[in-house]
Amino acid sequence: MTTLFARIFRQAKVTFEQANAERFLSNLQNLRALMDQLTLDDLNLDPAVASQETFQVPIKAPCTFIDIYENNCFTMSVFVLRENYTMPLHDHPRMHGLLRVVAGSVKIQSFTEIDRREEVRNGDELRHVLVSVEQERVISAGKAECAMLTPTERNFHEITAIGGPAAFFDILSPPYNADIPVYGKRTCSFYRKLLLPGDGANNDGRKRMVLEKIPTPDHYYCDTEQYDTPEFMLAEQINQNTEVIYRSIQPNSLGVIDEAIDRLEALVTDVKNQLATAKSSCFAGNQSRSVAFWRPWRTAI
Question: Could you tell me which Pfam families the record lists for this protein (predicted)?
Fold first, then answer.
């Protein structure tokens, strides 16, 4: 684990916390500049996680998900894709996102919504979206700046590993399940592409198409890898939970205070157990590999 990842973590907090909204754009550029330097080694991940040998195991899922961090403002995670596997086309409603390839190479095809839809609040489901087709990008580990999406640009995409397995680290804000003002909790949806008559080109020459919402594709499922959480993240989790506990304390309520102390002690014990588990874990072979398959965003992408 390097200090660069700690700096990225701290910068993400500064960037996405609402208290710093006035400096959001400059903070976002600072975060992007740091992300452009990130490597697999900075994340303390074994290169074997993105090796051909790993994906030759018969029961191996086509995608591995590594959950790194989540709070109410942003999430951090790593996805590892099998060679030639495409993460299905999906959306990122009302989100900013940064994606850094840390192993192998990926091809990213992004789409931008045209005449941005009003968010549906009455329970009706919007099934078709008119989009413009962005230029396809090929990004290799350590050789290009990270990809970025915003609430209004490149907020639909599909990602394919090319030339071998590939891994990418991403930061998304706000998380899918975050309850944000006006829009509430957003879900991520999957889509298929529908061609328009001709080539779909508009007067500006940009190709257009329609995206149709579909159920989660059957081929998309993930297994998981346990992440060796760095101490600076564990300390932050303790701080967050401590703040929640203190907010719940009512004046002159000794019973609530005693309960809060018990919760805090249990939290500290849990963190100690996580550290002990992390120190004894080994990424080599299949010892830390989960046998359970998981579909990201299944309960809500």
Answer: PCO_ADO
42 Cβ contact partners less than 8 Å away, ≥ 6 residues apart: 1, 2, 4, 5
According to DSSP, the residues that pair with 63 across neighbouring strands are: 81, 222
Three-state secondary structure call for residue 153: coil
Under 8 Å between Cβ of 185 and 178: yes
Closest CA to 301 of 183, 169, 156: 156
At 90-120, the pLDDT tens digits run: 999 889 999 999 999 999 999 999 875 544 4
Structural tokens at position 282: 């080994």
Entry pTM: 0.77
CA torsion angle 238 242 244 245 (round to 10): 140
Instruction: Cis check for the bond before 251: say yes or no (omega within 30 of 0).
Output: no
